């Protein structure tokens, strides 16, 4: 067994956040079975435009259902994430070009652990009250300068101020300036197109390669990991209906 999970995400996607939490929770276990995980910043707006899709909250029936589905999806995550709320102006807050460029810059110039920590932190700021606006270079700089060193999520006790800040103010200026460069602008477009070429129409988009055969397949959403694990030949427990307590006792 073994393989690679390429996970394409945008911080404006709640389900990208939940998929990220799920993969991070199981990352060491996946690594023990020779499965690598890599996150790729891309633009969900570009995916929607390129695939002809529409944000679910712009479709009245989907928006109504989304309230139920989001609540259920959050509740099934173990351990439970910190309080999550939808920004009131999600369409405007979803203009994430600046933070996604900053993430790509960090990914290209810093260790993977730093990139993962920053991605986690920006997910947290976007989706947790008071839902920080991350649409401008100034707001993203304000966020980056507060990233705790070793951040692994609220409530973990790790990276919540004990070890200082991950970036200096000078490093944050360099990141934000670098994110506005042509290299990063083209790079983010390229990653978005790469996902489109792999069939993406939303986020999170997963491209999974089975090392045994070299074959890759797409997977969509934060609740398809049982399909991913089966594709990779990994041992896992599927959703199983159990008998009622009384019936089990009789058996």
From TrEMBL:
Superkingdom classification of source: Eukaryota
Ranges where the DSBA-like thioredoxin domain occurs: 5-128
Gene Ontology MF terms: glutathione peroxidase activity; glutathione transferase activity
InterPro entries, A to Z: DSBA-like_thioredoxin_dom (IPR001853), GST_Kappa/NadH (IPR051924), Thioredoxin-like_sf (IPR036249)
A biological process term (GO) from this entry: glutathione metabolic process
Gene Ontology CC annotations of this record: mitochondrion; peroxisome
Entry-linked PANTHER family: GLUTATHIONE S-TRANSFERASE KAPPA, GLUTATHIONE S-TRANSFERASE KAPPA-RELATED
Protein name: DSBA-like thioredoxin domain-containing protein
Organism: Parathielavia appendiculata
């Amino acid at each position: 067994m073994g393989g690679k999970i390429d996970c394409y995400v945008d911080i404006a996607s709640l389900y990208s956040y939940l998929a990220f939490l799920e993969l991070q929770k199981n990352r060491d276990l996946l690594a023990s079975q020779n499965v690598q995980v890599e996150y790729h910043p891309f633009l969900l707006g570009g995916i929607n435009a390129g695939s002809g899709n529409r944000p679910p909250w712009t479709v009245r029936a989907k928006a109504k259902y989304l309230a139920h589905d989001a609540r259920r999806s959050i509740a099934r995550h173990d351990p439970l994430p910190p309080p999550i709320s939808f920004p009131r102006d999600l369409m405007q807050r979803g203009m994430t070009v600046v933070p996604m460029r900053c993430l790509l810059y960090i990914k290209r110039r810093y260790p993977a652990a730093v990139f993962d920590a920053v991605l986690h932190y920006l997910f947290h700021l976007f989706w947790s009250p008071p839902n920080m606006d991350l649409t401008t270079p100034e707001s993203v700089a304000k966020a980056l300068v507060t990233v705790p060193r070793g951040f692994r999520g609220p409530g973990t006790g790790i990276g919540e101020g004990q070890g200082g800040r991950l970036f200096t103010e000078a490093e944050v200026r360099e990141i934000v300036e670098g994110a506005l460069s042509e290299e990063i602008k083209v790079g983010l477009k390229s990653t978005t197109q790469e996902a489109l070429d792999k069939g993406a129409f939303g986020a999170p988009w997963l491209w999974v390669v089975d090392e045994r055969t070299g074959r890759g397949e797409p997977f969509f959403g934060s609740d398809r990991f049982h399909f991913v694990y089966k594709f990779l030949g990994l041992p896992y427990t599927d959703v199983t209906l159990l008998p009622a307590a009384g019936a089990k006792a009789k058996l």
